[in-house]
Write a structure and sequence with these properties.
526 residues; 22-stranded antiparallel β-barrel; 5 helices; 57% strand
């Protein structure tokens, strides 16, 4: 379960509904924590607390000439729970963030923040359970004021709740074949009328032959999905396909698949949303640290391409991916499609620290001490009720030296509306809805952490994004720079001082926004 709860400030009527659901998710998380106590596992409970004081010269991210400054205080007591055993992987990070403004810009608010992941093996080699979710605050649209945290106050932020639970059966028929049947329930809700509450139920199955002495492996896969959004008709997405893989060498194989898919959303211009599809490509695994998969094919919306390339060296990790698919904002929240900084650095340190539990502690300590962002640069998942064709290219590189860690990431994402915008409790025909339906986002980030000594480190974080509306041709640009200095005073006490500058520009009136902020913070574990 990945759960993040933020800002329950009553700025929107829908937040009452979110609050009730967040309580249910928190209760589910508590149940999850207590669940598999019958398995022998090492449990670690660590209380934490952080305190932050920020001065900003534009607390509400107002346009030029309308700025006002404020001092913002945040205090966040919390805890972490971890367990790592062969049959249970669990991580829970919780804090209750209280925020107050010296000059009353935003009153006082409380924000629950919970992040957890769980994978459990309930019956050995047969029955498993995955669960995750999220309650977080994010920007409603890539067009408008962009906030880096909960300090700024503006109308382009809302709460989004998402969770999923997925029990599944997995069975092997010796080394000849493997099967899996999985049920998944997902739910997404937000404090904005631009994104309708939705529930999705999906069943997946797969049957694949084993990789034995034969040069050929076969697979049969299928899925049936039903998605129901508030005030909208349910949408079915069904898929059935067969695939074949032929090994030319032990490290290189060709692959092909053919299948049939059906989607029942109401398309723009009554374009077909079903039909036979096919794809073909290759899989290259020259070493255990390198994997390249490339495919080309055809679906009902046209020719498709996909690429997944990963390479891990002793002091470097590289990843590039490209994908095309029909999806929704709700599905993107459920998929957690951002690249986690933790998982990326976890791969980077895998050669130096083989033990997963020890490596996780080192990576978490690095992120907390240096103030690294939780995720690498990624496009904003603008809130919209439409089905859209998303074409997304992402690349990331991490380098680790004796004193320096560098993380680079870039993305190029294009979304084109494929369905008719229909029934919602909100302003579905507003200009913002039109902007969110179809847009193109290009951006990147560079993070450089330098360890000045065993207890002091400096960090520079640069971000840039360019967003273009495909319906109105509006162009917005966003740039930010953060410089910070961190010191570990004791083994469990860390302090930092950070300077941040951000600026936005737009080719529409009132789109010029700038902010400068300085933040001092301390973080303690007990």
């Amino acid at each position: 379960m990945v759960i993040t709860t933020t800002d329950i400030r009553p700025r929107h009527a829908g937040l009452r509904r979110l609050r009730r659901r967040s309580i249910a998710i928190a209760a589910a998380a508590a149940t999850t924590v207590a669940f598999p106590t019958v398995h022998a596992a090492e449990w670690r409970f660590t209380p934490t607390v952080s305190a932050t004081e920020t001065y900003t010269d534009n607390v509400s991210l107002a346009t030029r000439g309308m700025e006002h400054s404020d001092f913002v205080t945040q205090v966040a007591p919390g805890f972490t729970i971890t367990s790592n055993s062969p049959r249970l992987k669990l991580s829970v990070i919780y804090s209750l963030e209280g925020t107050t403004y010296l000059h009353g810009s935003g009153g006082t608010s409380l924000a629950n923040q919970l992040s957890a992941t769980m994978n459990a093996e309930l019956i050995r080699n047969l029955f498993f359970l995955d669960a995750r979710g999220g309650i977080g605050q994010q920007d409603i649209s890539a067009f408008g004021p962009q906030s880096a945290n909960n300090i700024n106050i503006n109308n382009n932020r809302t709460d989004v709740l998402s969770y999923s639970i997925s029990p599944y059966l997995r069975h092997s028929f010796g080394s000849k074949a493997f099967s899996e049947v999985r049920y998944t329930h997902e739910s997404v809700n937000s404090g904005s009328d631009l994104l309708s509450p939705s529930n999705t139920d999906r069943v997946n199955f797969s049957l694949t032959s084993g990789e034995s002495s034969s040069k050929i492996t076969l697979g049969l896969r299928g899925s049936a999905q039903r998605a129901k959004a508030s005030n909208q008709p349910s949408v079915e997405q069904d898929n059935l396909n067969a695939d074949l893989r032929y090994f030319l060498t032990p490290n290189f194989s060709t692959t092909a698949a053919v299948g049939y898919e059906k989607e029942t959303y109401v398309s723009i211009g009554d374009q077909p949303t079903n039909g036979v599809y096919y794809n073909a490509g290759f899989i290259w695994k020259p070493t255990s640290r390198t994997n390249v998969t490339a495919m080309v094919g055809h679906r009902f919306f046209g020719r498709t391409y996909s690429l997944q390339a990963d390479h891990r060296a002793r002091n470097a990790v590289f990843r590039v991916s490209y994908a095309e698919d029909i999806t929704t904002a709700q599905q993107q929240f459920s998929a957690q499609s951002t690249i986690s900084t933790f998982s990326f650095l976890d791969q980077l340190y895998s050669a130096q620290i083989p033990d997963p539990a020890t490596r996780a502690q080192v990576v978490n300590a690095l992120i907390l001490q240096t103030g690294l962002p939780a995720s690498l640069a990624n496009p904003i998942n603008s809130l919209t009720n439409t089905y859209f064709l998303q074409k997304s290219l992402q690349g990331s590189l991490a380098l680790n030296g004796v004193r320096n860690t560098i993380v680079l990431s870039v993305f190029d994402t294009r979304r084109t509306a494929e369905s008719v915008r229909s029934g919602s409790s909100g302003p579905v025909n507003s200009p913002l809805s039109s902007l969110n339906d179809s847009n193109k986002q290009i951006g990147g980030a560079a993070v450089w952490n330098m360890r000045l000594s065993s207890s002091i480190s400096a960090l520079a974080d640069v971000n840039a994004t360019r967003t273009t509306s495909l319906t109105t041709a509006r162009v917005d640009n966003y740039k930010s720079l953060r410089l910070s200095l961190s010191r570990q005073f004791q083994n469990k006490l860390t302090g930092s001082l950070a300077l941040r500058h951000s600026q936005q520009s737009s080719d529409v009136l009132g789109g010029d926004i700038r902010e400068n902020a300085i933040t001092a913070s301390v973080f303690a574990k007990f």
